[in-house]
Structures are given as C-alpha cells and as structure tokens.
Write a structure and sequence with these properties.
globular; alpha/beta; 8-stranded parallel sheet; 426 residues
C-alpha cells in the first residue's frame, strides 16, 4: 500500500481547494413549474425569465467572496440552458431564446469569476421523448463525436459526449464539471465515464471533475457539513472507494487496511441557501440566516472541504432580494471574522488552523493551548486539519498567546495557527 504521507494533490485539486467558496445555480424549467425534479416532457414555453441578468448573479457572488459558479446547464429533466445543436428541447425553443451559458460566461470573464457547469447524466427527456436516446438499447460502436475524438459508445453516451464538447469548447475556460449521481429515471443506462473523463481532460485539462469524477468527491450529505475528521487521502480497492461516500468514516484505519491504493480525493459540500434547490416563492421567508450560513462555513470550509452553496434565481432570472441580502451579509462576515485574525493579547472564540496541503495532509491529531494569567491551558483538541480547520470554543477566551501541539502526524507538517472572534457565536 502507498504511504499515506506521500499522497499529494494535483495542481487542479490544489487550486480548487484554495477557492473555498463555489456557488451553485439551479435554474431552468423547474423554476417556472415549481418542481424540484422536472418530468422530462415540460413544455419549453413555460421557461421565460424576462429580466434575466447573469451579470447580477456574478456581481452578487463576487461581492460575497465566491471564486467560481456552476450552472445547471442541463438538469435531470433534460432541458438545456444553451442552444444545443443535438436536440430541440433547449432555450432556443422557449420565449426567452437566450443562451444562459454564453451570458454567464461573459459575466464571469468580466468580473473575474470561474465558470463551471452541471450536466446531468440522467435525462428524463431522452428517456421519454419519441426517439430519445436514454436506455434505448443501441449498440456500442466506434463513434467519431467530433473530428479527432473517437469513442466506443452507444447512442446516449454519443449524445452526452457531443453536449460535453459543446459546453467545453464554446464558453471559455471551464473551472469545474459537475456530474450528479442522482437518477430519477426508471430505465437502465450505462454511462461511459472513461470516455467522458477523457474528453474533459483533453479539452479542459485544468477543470476539476466533481462528485462523479476523479478529482472531487461528494461529502455524502446535502446539509452543509463535512466530517470532523475529513481526510483528503482516501483508500480505494479495485478502483472504487473502500467506504461509501456517506459513511461516517471514509479514511480511517479500517478503510486504510482494506485498500490497495490511495488517492487525493477531497470533499465538496453542497447545500442550498433555501430548503429547495430551485426557486420557490413559498420559500422566500426560509432563506438561511447569517448564523446558519456561518455555521455551514465553519463545518465545510472549516473542516477541510469546499463549500458549494446553491442560490437559485427566481422567475425574473434574478437572485431574489432575500438571497442577495443573505449573501451580502455572509461575505461581509467572513471578511470581518475569518479573513481577519485577532491580535493578541485579545479575546477570541474560534481557533483557525491551516496545513500546507501541497506537501500532503499529515496531521492526525492536535491540541491548542492558550496562555492565560501566565499559565498554558488547553482550550481545544481535534484530529485532521487539511487545508483549513475552524473550531468554535464554547466560551470566549482572553489570552496573551496561543500555541498548537501536534500530537500525531504521518510525516512532518507545516501548520499555521490563528484565532478569530465571531459575534454570532456569542
């Protein structure tokens, strides 16, 4: 077995982790039908955002500190937010007619935000529409999807690869490709993952392939938190993770013992700012509060993961006022409470730790002490650190100095320590 201390992130994984905050944007026919999962046969005529402004989305996200955005270019219903040449069930058939991917790409380039897309493997339109490809039993044959790109695939995977090609080549640099594992269809369909990954790597080598791909794993819940012990070095056996992604522990001693390889496979935490993933007017008064968002931040970014926070545009095609206000407060709080350290002597209620993950993830356990009244007192302990660890203290501490003791490591570790004051914890 590979020594866990020797496993390192790729350059794309390291850049991805350093973003910390990524936005999800769920938008499409579901926004207008008030559904979470569309039927697949939804009439494109219902989709009509008359005030669509991707520039508004991006300005709000940049102000809140997000580093990239992922659009649901195609959700499970199969409706496409760009005018794909491979079907008619797209924005081109809607009253709006506008290419959302193109407009979002332009806004991201203008404001310096990374662009990603979600392309659902499951496709209810291709399952239900006459002549649809999903699970149609077509043979696997060598197919040239574009000049120079030939794969052994069936009809649906050929269709999917062609859509990937459009999105990867028509809309500027792509930072992340997100492949949802959920599947509301009733038809069996094999996915040609190796062909998909190969095409992405060839066309967008710097893009991470997330939660169904080789670069980033799903944390295992949609509640906004990572594990208190969240390893980025994850055991595999037979090409698959030893543990289920939703297991309480994915990289502990038992999993390591069962592994025949180890990979750098960090966690992404997806959660919505509202109860639903798509916009519903009935949820306008259920946008997460600032304390709730900061709790999510500490339990995602602050537990060695990247936070993927969903903000669904409303039927106008804009982020709703309540969401904009929540994001503005969230960004301001992070800048004030977590991008700024308390200078000691002083009072704090959050301990921050960072590990130099370019040299691997090495810390297995640690303790933090505070110098209070001339004596060192232990104030918190923990297990993993990784890119960032944020630990709330159950009472405010006034100290002259702080120190971290590394109790167990896999190899030499470079760790930095800061302390912070978050008044929402008071």
């Amino acid at each position: 077995m590979i020594d866990p201390s020797a496993v390192r992130p790729s350059a794309r994984q390291l850049a991805w982790q350093q973003q910390e905050l990524t936005a999800f944007v769920h938008f499409g026919v579901n926004t207008f039908t008030d559904l979470e999962w569309g039927t697949g046969l939804d009439d494109p005529a219902v989709y009509n955002p008359q005030e669509l402004s991707c520039d508004q989305w991006v300005r709000v996200l940049v102000d809140a500190g997000f580093k990239s955005v992922i659009l649901t270019a195609k959700h499970h219903d199969g409706f496409c937010l760009w005018p794909s040449r491979y079907l008619t069930h797209t924005v081109a058939a809607s009253p709006s007619g506008r290419d959302v991917m193109a407009e979002l790409s332009a806004a991201c380039a203008k404001h310096g935000l990374g662009l990603g897309f979600y392309l659902s493997p499951a496709d209810l339109y291709q399952e239900k529409a006459p002549g649809g490809y999903y699970g149609n039993g077509s043979p696997v044959v060598a197919s040239e999807i574009q000049p120079g790109f030939t794969y052994e695939v069936d009809d649906y995977n050929r269709f999917y690869l062609n859509q990937l090609y459009e999105l990867l080549t028509q809309y500027g640099p792509i930072a992340e490709v997100w492949l949802d594992g959920a599947n509301p269809t009733s038809t069996a369909q094999e996915y040609a993952f190796d062909a998909w990954f190969d095409l992405i790597r060839r066309l967008a080598p710097e893009a991470t392939i997330a939660v169904g791909g080789p670069d980033v794993r799903w944390v295992g819940n949609e509640d906004g938190f990572a594990r208190e012990t969240e390893w980025s070095v994850v055991p595999f056996a037979g090409g698959r993770m030893v543990a289920e992604q939703s297991a309480p522990e994915v990289a502990g001693p038992a999993q390591l013992a069962a592994a025949d390889e180890l990979r750098w496979y960090p966690a992404e935490v997806d959660v919505s700012i509202r109860p639903g993933w798509f916009y519903h007017a009935s949820e306008d008064d259920q946008v997460k509060s600032l304390p709730a968002l900061l709790d999510i931040y500490r339990k995602s970014v602050g537990r060695n993961a990247v936070l993927l926070l969903n903000i669904p545009p409303d039927r106008r095609g804009l982020f709703a006022d309540a969401d904009v206000q929540a994001l503005s407060a969230f960004g301001a709080a992070i800048r004030s409470y977590y991008d700024t350290a308390v200078e000691l002597p002083g009072s704090f209620n959050v301990v921050g730790l960072r590990e130099d993950i370019a040299a691997g993830q090495q810390v297995e356990s640690f303790a933090v002490d505070a110098l209070v009244g001339g004596s060192w007192t232990e104030i918190t302990t923990g297990t993993t650190i990784g890119h960032r660890r944020l630990i709330p203290i159950d009472h405010s501490v006034t100290a002259d100095a702080v120190r971290v003791r590394l109790l167990a490591t896999r190899s030499d570790a470079a760790v930095t320590l800061t302390v912070h004051h978050d008044p929402t914890l008071a």
